[in-house]
């Protein structure tokens, strides 16, 4: 009891200090421990368990699209990495470099992969002969290292886990279509499994991936109004295939360079879950990817055989369909309930000696903390309902927040004010790198994306939001402070 | 047809040159591609698919034992690594060392994990307070790097994938018992899922893990008679807990160092599968971990709607229970059959226009190449039978080979002869490091293990097998040439 209450007291209210709230939440709830070196974290069972379920569900989505998993080397020889120049320039300052083995210096340096475009390029070069081999659609689950200066658990750490998909196509149109298909797949996945609404859009030239022709993104809004880029899909055109010589014989028997895409989501998603759904009691895990979906808590069960019997029976019944944990320890009820809450378990069932005499248990949902007195014969039905209802409720709350806090602004003074209010600001913008840098300096906001057609936008042209630009444009860009 | 037959022709018969046979098999069958740098390989879908199924099944075994998955950092700071001296000495020559980020030299070097004992030690130190926190039982799926001088795909590569379990206990007996429980778990898993028989035993002091008090191993016999260490489980005693200060308050409220174990299996198992079951047509994948369990091959289906209809129907029916691939391409039958064989798919169903008129299809099992004419209504039943029968047949053949080629020898001249014949030689031995080194120099054989009690052994003492030793001993050790 002592320990757990201390831990819960440690969570700073999110209204008071959001950054501190986030750190408090990730340190608790069996989520992470800090590693020995700056910016390194240990994924404890509750966070790694979420990641495993994300892997499982995404694998099932990928598999239906015929995407096959492969695994490529961790280390990239310097000579291979340097073949695509824009890519090198983008990643060079963050590359962890292996120069020695034991005390011995290596003849050639190796970089720990920050992403695997060049390794896949090498594989594709070896694997592709003719148009019959295309499209070639691979995915990899892997760890990558980017030596970031400022770090934040899940959101920006020096090593993170992700999946990176890499494809080759014979036609640019097909590749472009696939790039967009994958970003929509991610948006759907976040909606259906993580209960996170996102805005789908294209990155401005300044914000696109180093080496890509265009980058699509899904942007989510955290509870403090900041944006979190939650998944990206890149159309690489022939940038890598020309640098690496990845060719195929087309149906006229002529050699041509392939058209490529790459796309990924990472353990950042764990940060997105916390900052989209969490509250002052800790993380709230959406039911479909919760490592434990139901906590069954026996209260004072040493005194009541009936409590033990009912708990055991519910555990067996519910385990057929759900991931269930049974706590039969003799810890006190307050501790058990707090422990379940801080770990973000979507539903807990409290079984106490008095209620059980009337065949009643109490079901508590983590999102609203509502307590539902339920006859033991109705538990299964109630749980079935709650699993979907909690998901819907989490999604709808987040969607409402996103909608209410996205504003259309054409005046720069208002722009600055709304950015400061923590809004997503949707404004006319010409997309010049220089203008973006100035806006960032002046307001702290970066361009998040140019929303794709599905997103409602004004018909008429407006003056570019950047003070020193008099162009009229009908290109509208979302700006926000971002993680 | 051309391409595939060329590939099959490329497989050197195993009787002629086993090493070349192995290389030919791994290069074909959608298993690997070589990476850019020496000793690095790319896991293609057919090999990575096996590994994913091994992960899935082992996770399910682990989960029943209450083992939780976590993920720790890839990079180990030099200062942390150096705390356990025997461990450092054992791994130092193989450590890939990160010294720079971009062009900038780091203040402290980092090693890419060759194994994660020191990282877990650090986590345990932070997580454990009292005996209530014990036992603590974690597992990690990860990539590790060991800079080996000679490399061989799957068997010895500079980066490999594995799981490493790490536990802390309050009592030495409990920890020792857990060490043995895990090695038996591995032996059972290899038998039940990979159809590989193994000998369970303890490593001699010379062969034990650097930093362990004792190491248990499972040793499998490859088709050339060589041993492959296929899984290990280490009792670490208090070696790491003392070096890292991992203590707990016991029930007398006194601080004590924890007792630890660690245990792992790796992508070596893919090499074990190939060299235990493979034949001159390529890999044979045991049904329970085959990414594709059934290939349905349409023959001349463009001419026959009935072929297409039956194939589709079987695909739908069988997919409910099995991992099935349907090949409706218009490639020729010979190509399709060879392609299925070289990829090691346990069962293929050939559907041709003539047979199908009589409601007949041909089922071919990959292990014996036996062809079974089957009425389409009996396919499901036949497949159910074959999945188990192929597994049993693969296991029994391997077990028979292991039994027939393990010999008890007490005379050193005979020892040398039998080692040369590719046998596992079971001999009396005192276990002195010096003697083992000499035997290795003279015969090429290393000690594999001291088989545990379950293994039948002579009652009486014999003179140690080492020429220059006159001790009589009742400790018997298995020697063999090994990968």
TrEMBL record, chains A, B:
Comment text on domains: Consists of three domains: the N-terminal catalytic domain, the anticodon-binding domain and the C-terminal extension.
Catalysed reactions, as listed in the record: tRNA(Pro) + L-proline + ATP = L-prolyl-tRNA(Pro) + AMP + diphosphate
Domain of life assignment: Bacteria
MF GO annotations: ATP binding; proline-tRNA ligase activity
GO cellular component annotations of the record: aminoacyl-tRNA synthetase multienzyme complex; cytoplasm
Compartment(s) where it occurs, according to its Swiss-Prot or TrEMBL record: Cytoplasm
GO annotation terms (biological process): prolyl-tRNA aminoacylation
SMART domains: ProRS-C_1
Family: Belongs to the class-II aminoacyl-tRNA synthetase family. ProS type 3 subfamily.
Subunit structure comment from the entry: Homodimer.
Coiled-coil region: none
NCBIfam families: proS_fam_I (TIGR00408)
Alphabetically ordered keywords of this record: Aminoacyl-tRNA synthetase, ATP-binding, Cytoplasm, Ligase, Nucleotide-binding, Protein biosynthesis
Job description of the protein: Catalyzes the attachment of proline to tRNA(Pro) in a two-step reaction: proline is first activated by ATP to form Pro-AMP and then transferred to the acceptor end of tRNA(Pro).
Protein name: Proline--tRNA ligase
Enzyme Commission number(s) from the entry: 6.1.1.15
Enzyme class, UniProt record, top EC level: ligase
Main location per the UniProt record: cytoplasm
UniProt domain Aminoacyl-transfer RNA synthetases class-II family profile: residue ranges: 39-286
């Amino acid at each position: 009891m002592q320990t757990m209450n201390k831990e819960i007291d440690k969570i700073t209210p999110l209204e008071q200090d959001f950054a501190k709230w986030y750190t408090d939440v990730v340190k608790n709830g069996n989520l992470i421990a800090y590693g020995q070196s700056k910016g390194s974290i240990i994924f404890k069972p509750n966070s790694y368990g979420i990641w495993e379920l994300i892997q499982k569900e995404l694998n099932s989505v990928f598999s239906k699209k015929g995407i096959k998993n492969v695994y490529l080397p961790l280390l990239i020889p310097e000579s291979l990495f340097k073949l695509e120049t824009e890519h090198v320039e983008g990643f060079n300052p963050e590359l962890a470099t292996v120069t020695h083995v034991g005390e011995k210096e290596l003849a050639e340096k190796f970089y720990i992969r920050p992403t695997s475009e060049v390794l896949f390029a090498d594989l594709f070069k070896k694997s592709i002969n003719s148009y019959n081999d295309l499209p070639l659609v691979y995915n990899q689950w892997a760890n990558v290292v980017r030596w970031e200066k400022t770090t934040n658990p899940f959101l920006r750490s020096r090593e993170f886990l992700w999946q990176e998909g890499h494809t080759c196509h014979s036609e640019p149109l097909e590749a472009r279509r696939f790039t967009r298909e994958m970003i929509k797949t991610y948006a759907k996945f976040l909606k259906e499994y993580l209960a996170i609404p996102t805005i789908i859009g294209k990155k401005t030239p300044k914000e696109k991936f180093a080496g890509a022709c265009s980058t699509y993104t899904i942007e989510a809004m955290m509870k403090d109004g900041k944006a979190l880029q939650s998944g990206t899909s890149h159309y690489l055109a022939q940038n890598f295939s020309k640098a690496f010589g990845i060719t195929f014989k087309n149906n006229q028997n002529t050699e041509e360079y392939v058209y490529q895409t790459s796309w990924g989501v990472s353990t950042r998603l764990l940060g997105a879950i916390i900052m989209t759904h969490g509250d002052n009691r800790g993380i709230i895990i959406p039911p479909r990817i919760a490592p434990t979906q139901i906590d069954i808590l026996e209260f004072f069960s040493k005194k009541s055989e009936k409590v033990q019997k009912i708990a055991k029976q519910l555990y067996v019944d519910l385990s057929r369909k759900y991931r269930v944990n049974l706590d039969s320890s003799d810890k006190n009820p307050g501790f058990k309930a707090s422990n379940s809450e801080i770990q973000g378990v979507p539903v807990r069932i409290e079984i106490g000696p008095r209620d059980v005499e009337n065949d009643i248990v109490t079901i508590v949902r983590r999102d609203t903390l509502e307590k539902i007195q339920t006859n033991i014969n109705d538990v299964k039905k109630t749980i079935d309902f709650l699993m979907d209802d909690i998901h819907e409720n989490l999604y709808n709350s987040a969607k409402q927040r996103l909608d209410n806090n996205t504003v259309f602004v054409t005046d720069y003074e208002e722009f600055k004010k709304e950015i400061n209010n923590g809004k997503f600001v949707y404004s006319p913008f010409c997309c010049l790198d220089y203008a973006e840098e100035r806006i960032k300096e002046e307001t702290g906001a970066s361009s998040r994306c140019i929303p794709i057609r599905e997103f409602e936008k004004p018909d008429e042209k407006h003056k570019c939001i950047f003070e020193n630009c008099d162009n009229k444009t009908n290109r509208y860009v979302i700006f926000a402070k971002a993680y």
